[in-house]
């Protein structure tokens, strides 16, 4: 049984507030409302991902060398600037700038908060419980997403527009800044005291350890398995939104309301159910691994299952069986949240705790590289062939990579 002390609840509160991104269930529909094609939407996602990729290494080194807590505070400040841009400047190029600020927030955050948790477990001799502990905190994140989906649906239904959900997202992020500011200093890890003349040496030392991760073949195989699954999931998961919208408009319900309000009701309910299930999945990921008896077997099995679920979602969307496609997407979300604690634990066993933030940033960096490539391609495929065919194609590509990316103990 994991120790549910004050820091467990602080970590959980962080995840809950972080996932109160009210725009998440509607982001593609928001861009479509603005008149963008799927390719333009994919291009905005690519701008975000390329910017994140460029910033990943320096921000990861900054977190390891100068303080993970400070890195997290800078992250959430950048997110807030991004949300303000999305609300105030409704134009493609302004959104491109907003994506850069969002990317800066992602770059400062990804890998860093996981490193804070793993450092806390190391200091408290609980490293053997990291799957269960991280799964528990991630469950709070998914609960935040569930609550967020209902609040977002209410905002869209009340306003009749997707735009306001960005400015309201500022509120939980300001609260999270306050939460992060109370984290204990020892979670920053082993830091060299910054004095005049030592900054360059400190960066050089951290960079050397960071590059060393790429020479660790076991760590890199684990990272590649994790990042490719995450990239396919993140590049395709938003396409659940047009599937649910199509399903909502086909129902003989709420016909007195506009299409935006009708779809908001159904999307809010669907995402609420999804995130409740993903919260349960994250919390019980260690039990899932125990059923296989080996974390390696669990990771390889879930990779193949993810590819098959994406293929199924595409096939049933093409056949206009939206409800079945939604169910396949639902299980894809659940599977991703079962895998995530397993992947973090598997990678952390192969990376030094001194460079944990950098090691997890390598995974995030490679994920964003793949997403930067996949997002415009799936957008172009959706414009050319329809969403269903695009999902089928990319599910097949994911399946073909499963043989190459099998991990070993």
Describe the structure.
This protein is 79% helix and 0% strand. It is globular. The chain is an all-alpha fold and 409 residues long. The protein has one domain: MFS general substrate transporter like domains (Growth Hormone, Chain: A), CATH 1.20.1250.20. It has helices spanning 6-18, 27-33, 38-66, 68-88, 92-109, 112-123, 130-159, 164-168, 170-180, 199-214, 217-236, 240-250, 259-283, 285-292, 295-318, 322-348, 356-385, 387-401. Helix 6 runs antiparallel to helix 17 (356-385), helix 12 (240-250) packs antiparallel against helix 16 (322-348) and helix 15 (295-318) packs antiparallel against helix 16 (322-348).
Overall 3D geometry?
globular
Distinct helical segment count: 18
CATH class descriptor name: Mainly Alpha
- For the record, the count of structural domains works out to 1
> What is the total tally of β strands?
0
Strand content: under 5%
CATH architecture: Up-down Bundle
Q: In the CATH hierarchy, what is the superfamily?
A: MFS general substrate transporter like domains
Low-confidence stretches: none
How far apart are the termini? 25 Å
User: Can you write the helix and strand succession as a string?
Assistant: HHHHHHHHHHHHHHHHHH
| Estimated radius of gyration | 21 Å
Tell me, rounded to a whole number, the average pLDDT. Answer: 85
**Largest sheet, strands/sense/barrel:** none
CATH topology: Growth Hormone, Chain: A
Structural class by secondary-structure content:
mainly alpha
User: Portion of residues in helices?
Assistant: over 70%
């Amino acid at each position: 049984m994991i120790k549910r002390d004050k820091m467990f609840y602080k970590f959980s509160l962080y995840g809950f507030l972080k996932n109160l991104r009210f725009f998440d269930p509607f982001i593609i529909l928001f861009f479509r409302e603005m008149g963008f094609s799927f390719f333009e939407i994919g291009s905005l996602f690519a701008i975000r991902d390329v910017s994140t990729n460029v910033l990943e290494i320096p921000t990861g080194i900054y977190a390891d060398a100068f303080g993970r807590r400070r890195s997290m505070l800078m992250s959430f400040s950048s997110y807030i600037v991004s949300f303000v841009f999305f609300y105030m400047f409704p134009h493609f190029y302004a959104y491109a700038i907003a994506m850069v600020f969002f990317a800066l927030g992602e770059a400062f955050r990804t890998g860093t908060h996981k490193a804070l948790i793993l450092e806390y477990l190391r200091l408290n001799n609980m490293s053997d419980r990291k799957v269960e502990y991280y799964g528990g905190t991630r469950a709070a994140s998914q609960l935040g997403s569930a609550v967020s989906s209902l609040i977002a649906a209410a905002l869209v239904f009340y306003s009749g527009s997707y735009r306001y959900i960005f400015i309201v997202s500022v509120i939980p992020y300001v609260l999270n800044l306050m939460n992060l500011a109370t984290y204990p200093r020892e979670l920053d890890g082993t830091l060299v005291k910054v004095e005049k003349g030592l900054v360059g040496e400190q960066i050089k030392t951290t960079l050397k350890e960071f590059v060393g991760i790429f020479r660790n073949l076991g760590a890199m195989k684990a990272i590649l398995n994790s990042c490719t699954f995450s990239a396919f999931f993140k590049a395709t998961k938003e396409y659940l939104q047009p599937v649910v919208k199509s399903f909502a408009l086909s129902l003989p319900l709420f016909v007195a309301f506009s299409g935006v309000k009708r779809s908001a009701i159904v999307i809010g309910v669907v995402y609420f159910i999804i995130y409740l299930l993903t919260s349960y999945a994250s919390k019980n990921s260690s039990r899932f691994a125990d059923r296989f008896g080996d974390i390696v077997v669990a990771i390889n099995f879930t990779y193949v299952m993810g590819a098959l679920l994406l293929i199924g979602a595409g096939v049933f969307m093409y056949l206009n069986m939206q409800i079945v496609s939604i169910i396949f997407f639902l299980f894809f979300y659940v599977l991703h949240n079962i895998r995530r604690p397993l992947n973090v634990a598997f990678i952390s066993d192969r990376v030094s705790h001194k460079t944990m933030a950098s090691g997890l940033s390598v995974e995030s960096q490679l994920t964003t590289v793949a997403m930067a490539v996949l997002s415009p391609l799936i957008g172009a495929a959706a414009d050319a062939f329809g969403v269903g065919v695009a999902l089928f194609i990319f599910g097949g590509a994911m399946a073909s990579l499963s043989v190459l990316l099998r991990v070993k103990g």
